[in-house]
Each structure stands twice: as C-alpha cells, then as structure tokens.
Specification:
The complex is a heterodimer of chains A (598) and B (237). Chain A has 598 residues and is α/β, with parallel strands linked by helices. Chain A contains 26 helices and 15 strands. Chain A folds into five domains: 61 residues; 96 residues, 3-Layer(aba) Sandwich (Glutaredoxin), CATH 3.40.30.10; 215 residues, Rossmann fold, CATH 3.40.50.11540; 76 residues, Ubiquitin-like (UB roll); 83 residues, NADH-ubiquinone oxidoreductase 51kDa subunit, iron-sulphur binding domain (de novo design (two linked rop proteins), Up-down Bundle). Among the domains of chain B are: 72 residues, Ubiquitin-like (UB roll) (Roll); 80 residues, Alpha-Beta Plaits. Classes of the chains: A alpha/beta (598), B alpha+beta (237).
Amino acid sequence: MSAQTATELSDLLLKQWNRDPANLLQILIALQRDLNHIPNEAIRYLASELSLPQSVVEGVIGFYTFLHRQPRGHYDLLFSDNITDQMQGSRDRAQQLATALNVDLGATSEDLGLSLGYTSCIGMPDQGPAALINGKTLTRLSKERMDQIADLIKQQTPVDQWPEEFFTVEDNIRRRDILLDTVLDKGAALTSYLSQGPDKLLDEIERSGLRGRGGAGFKTALKWRFCREAKGEDPVVVCNADEGEPGTFKDRVLLQSYADRLIEGMTLCAAIIGASQGFIYLRGEYRYLLEPLQQELQKRRDSGLLGSTIQGHASLDFDIEIHLGAGAYICGEESALIESLEGKRGIPRIRPPFPVTQGYLGRPTVVNNVETFIAAAMIADNGADWFRSRGTSESTGTKLLSISGDCARPGIYEYPFGTSIQTILDDCDATNTQAVQVAGPAGMTLPASEFNRVIAFDDVPTGGSFMVFDHSRNMLEAVQNFADFFVHESCGFCTPCRVGTSLLKKRLEKVIAGHATGMDLEKMIEIGHLMKTSSHCGLGTTAANPILDTIEKFPLLYDERLKTTSFEPAFDLNKALDEAREITGRTDPGAYVEGGGV
Amino acid sequence: MIRHFTLDGKKIPFREGQTIMEAAQDAGIYIPHLCYNPEFVPHGSCRVCTVKANGRIVASCTTPATEEMQVENETEELQGNRRELLQMLFVEGNHVCPGCEKSGACQLQAVAYYTGMLAPEFTYFYPMRTVDSSHPDVAIDYNRCILCELCVRASRDEDGKNIFSIDGRGINTHLTVNSASGKLGDTDFDVHDKAAQVCPVGAILPKHEGYNIPIGQRLYDRKPISVVGDVADHQEE
C-alpha cells in the first residue's frame, strides 16, 4: 500500500470520526482492517492532524493485540486459545493447518499472505474450537473443516466467499427463567418511565435489589443515583460489552438476540440520569456483531425510540454510538474501558474520582454490563416484585451462566441466584466432574467437595463463566493456561501485576517440569498474596487466584511433581552445557557436571 | 478545623483533599516510594508506598486521608511487601549496582537498603534492552528504567515537550522517545529540562559528569533515604 493511500484513508477516517482524538482507537482499528497494519505514514499523519505526539499514537497501537505496525497477511487467522478451546482440540487444529500449508504457527507466510497465531478466548467455547479470520468468527473447527480452510487459503479464495456455515454462531440457550422467558414490548420500559417519573422508577429498581451483572455486584440503582446527582454536566451511558473473561459468552447471546432490550435499558438509564450520549463498547472479538447492532440501533431510531424527541418527548434525546475494542482483556475494567473509549491505552484509572462523577472525558458516567441494562429495562416494565420472585435476599433475580467444558450440553443457562453448582452440573449433563472454574480465571476453582455451594454474590459470585473439568483432565494445564493468559493481558502499569504474573508463570513451569520444591510453592503463595493485596486494579488482585486456589484445594497436583530436595536450582548448569558439548563434540566424563546452577 | 488521622500511632493533621502521602510528608514522616514526586500528579504504579489504611492495603500516594483513618506504615508486613516489590523491579530490568554510575545516588537502591532487601531472590529476567547515547548531554540506559513515568509526566506537564511515552503492554511495557528515529538526539530535549532531573534511578543520566562525586560521598552513602529525601530534590544543587 503506498504512502499516499494510507494518508488518504487516514484523512477519510478522520472526517468520519470528527477529527476527535477520543476516536483515535476507532480510526486505528479501521486502518488495520483496510491495510492489514498501521503504516508509519498513517501514524505521522494522524499524530499531526490530532495534535498528538507520534509516540502516543504508537503507544496506543502497542497496547492492543489486534493492532500491528508490521503487515499481517490478508488471511489473519487467530485460534482462540482458552483452555476450553484446547480441550476441544484447538491446538491440534492449528497444527493441522500449519502443516497442511507448511507455515509456522505465530508467523506470517508471505507466499500465502497468511498470518497464523493464537488469541485469548473469543467467547465461543460452546461451539469451539473457534478462531478469528480477519476479525470474523469461525466456529466448530472440525478436522474436515480445517482441511477445507487449508484448500480455500491455497486457492486464495477471499474470506467473504467462504461457506456461510463456517461463520454460524448459535445461541444455544438451554435454560430460560424470568429474564429470557418474559416478553418485553418495544418501548415498554420507557412508557413505564414516562408514567412513573425518574424518582419512582429509581426507587423501584432499588427495591428490586438489582446488582451489576459483570461480576462486581455494585447496586445498580445506587450507581444511577450517584450519577444523576453528580455535579458534572452532560452525563454519559456506557454499556460494557467487552466480555473478555475466558469462558463467558452470555453477553454475546444477548447482543445477538436481545439487542433491542439492551438499547431499551440504556435509554431508560439515559432518561433517568439525563444523558444524551451513549456508547456500546463492543469487544473486538465480537466484530461480527457490529453491523447487526447498528441495524438494531437504526430500527429504534426509525420507531422513534432512539435519537431526538424519543416517544414524542422533547426532553428525551439520546443516541448510542458503538466503539470497538481491539484485543485487551483489561478494557473490561470500567475505568480502563473509559480510557479506551477516549482513544487511549487501556490503563485503569486511579479512584477516586469514580466514573459516576468523572468518567468519559471527565463527565459523570454510568458503566454497566449488557445483562444489567436488560434486567433494569425488564424491572421497569414488570416491577421489583417480579424480579424478587427469584434469587435470594442478597442476590435477587436470576443470572445467566455460560457453560462450557466437559459437559454434554454446553450453552446459556439462566438460573435463579442461590442455585447450587451440583444442580447446574446435573442440568448440563456433566459427569465425573473433577472441578469447576467459576467466573473465569479471575474467579474460583471449586473441587467436588464444594459443589454444594451456590451461585450468589455472597457465596460463589460470577460474571457468567462456568467451565467444567472432568477427571480425565490435568488441572495443571488449565492453571498454566490461565497463568499465560494473565501474563498476556496484564496492562503493565503496576509492579506487582506486571512482574508478578511473569514470576508466577515461570515458577509454575518449574513445577510442571518437575524441578520445583516446597520452597517454590511457598514463594508462589507469597507472590500471589502480594499481587492480591497490592495491585492497582482487579486484574492484578485476581490474577493469582487459579494458582492460589489450586495449591490450597488440589495440593496433590503440585506435591506429586515436587523434588524431594529442599533446594533445586532454577538454572541447570549441566543442561546449559549441551550446546558446548555439541559444538566441541565432547562426550567424556569431564564434559559433564553434577549439580551446580543457581 | 484541622482534621487528623493516625499513622503508626501518631496523630497527623491533614487538609481536605490531601493524600496520606502528602500529609505524612508535611508532618516529616517518610513513606518509601519511587514513582511519587510531589511536583506531579500521583501515579500509583510502583506500589512501594503501600500502607494499611483501616485494614486495607492501599497506595498512600493516591489515597485521600480521612478523619480518624488508622494507617500503618512501618510494620514488618508492609516492609516485607515493599522488599518483594523492589525485588520484582530489580529482576525485571538489568540493575547491576556495582557497575552503575548512579550507585549511591539511586532511589531504587536506597529504598532497597532502607527496607532491608538483601538480595533479589527471584530469577532474573535479563531482558534485552538498549542504551541511547545519541543526545550530546544526556544518555538513556533503558536497562535501568522502572517505568515510574516521572520523565513522561515532567516532559508533558512541566516542559510541555512530550518527549517520553509508554509503549507495549504487560511485561513488554517500555519507555519510548517521541522522534521518528526513537532516539533522544533527534528531539529538542535539553539537559536543563525538568524531565532530566526527575529519574529516580540511573535510566536518564547527564553526560560529562560521571563519577564527579566519588563513591562513598554520594547522596545515600552516609545517611538513609528516609533522612535525605528523593533524588529529584538534590538534582539541581
């Protein structure tokens, strides 16, 4: 691509995005898509047009996994690398393709125009192995399908001519409760708002006990009230659709099949807090949902339910823009998400101030999960008692779970809070279960002795991820997958998380290689504890959970791999001499050393 | 009305909006820190200044003081946490104190002494990093950068030059220079810039004055950092 074209395209995008530096990330995503990378010419041009230092633009590119400064192939294929994908054979499929096309995994083949690699969970564990090709989602990658894909690439068939069924994403809703089973008429929540007014409706949402569905569980009515009462001008409504917790996919289903309810919930929130601007921050992995969501927004505008004078009321003026993410788990953290919405690196902010008082561009901002907005809309229509008819006193209503792993019926299950792990396992036909990972790698690892525990904010809280492991699995592989995930996804801002995640990964590798001693386990617990207490944000405070949980609850996993000696060097001196022996051709006893190392 | 909180059993006055760190410094109490410098917006990234406030471990440089807050600072638990954070910083980069021009006047080294850190204990990362000596008066040794972003803040907020930035993510996060070549020599950086005075370690080093002050007579050679204060306070003397 010539320099002129990159500049011309940048110029076009700058116009489309109002020459606003807050839209830098969106412009970069579009450039990456059209040019397979972001050329230096474009970086220089954008920096000068947006009055940003060039190094700041480069820093944004360097932060997001899906943005590149070196060209990717025109087939950019990334296999989802969550443990549940691996359990479905994703690594074998990737290898199968690499062998068939004679390319290296993790590299770009110029002959074929193919880049091949892995990426964090793309939210398809109920229909994996899955991958992204040029940002489009491929599901159910069987061996046969992989052969077909190898042929399509060999023949250089453009991706938009690949068979439609490769890209089918199923909802797989297996259990419905009040949220998914109750009909919400278009505009019903807004009608309720118009008849009751903001105060009464906020009271009703408060009485429902609704708490944030993303995992943290902050009371929704309280958040909206804080924002409504905040001093700043021009509040903002943000939907966190950056569903990045590995093993979670319930928001994907809601965005795909219940988007109208989400928009209704966001509009309701806007009416209550007095916002005219809203955003859906859609994770880059769900790029395939962008156009359908834009169509849903347009439908609402056409029916007078979005845009200016909603339902004929001059005071109701609210519209929603979709912003894409670009491969950064940390952007699911609300203040990092706001930074990313402002076009920056997704580094979590210092709090206070909290987003409800100073969020997007310093304006009061409500950030809620997809499921939370939908629940709020349904409460506005059906009342608090309807919602409270399910769940427990501290955890009212229902929760959508994304179930994957070793069970016969993976998919979406809606349960009242208070449902036990065992009931859920029975329903999804999981047998011989060894462990369940609830709330993703950042959550808890539960052994069979804890299957009587229940899904609830005060027992086993979850944003929705529920991964099942039967006795055929080596749990250390899951722990290692999670440790690698956190190394990749740590934002790098604070010392304990940036360095601690790598230190834990190295120690775990030492355990798996059979070189670790009891001292290494002690050290891992110590590092994990430091990360838990001293990190800047929730990613760092939870990143050690899989290791801490399994050392405590599955001690045999570790103990049986430990050396009996109290000191085992991290560095094997004898092994390090391999290369020297090979070069010199020496095999005499003097070329080998016993022990040694540091 | 003057309000107070308690720090290691001592009553400390504070003004509305002050952080624990600011109030402690005003009261002449030292809380170990690296990325904090009172002249710039707090960053809260090194986590060395973590204290226990009402039972919760928080960064004292970003946490506002509140009435009757109970703060622990000099406890064995917190010093242990700090030692471990310092060890992390030592193994993440390439910090070879005996061969470093900054030895004796380095805040990382001084805080390590202060907290009683004896050895890095973790396995070294030995990252491949470069040295940039393109500028006539100042060298950058990236091996020693601890990502405190003080130079980033100083250049942006005080010098108005935006010479330094951060790139990459996670363990690959690194300091960059804003020029087409990425070299400091191709910027308008000046040895008298604020950004040249704030580096707490030996990453941004003035040239032509190496070893002017002999080892043994340096900033932290005879008195601990808790008495001497930050490197940045002594730069322009």
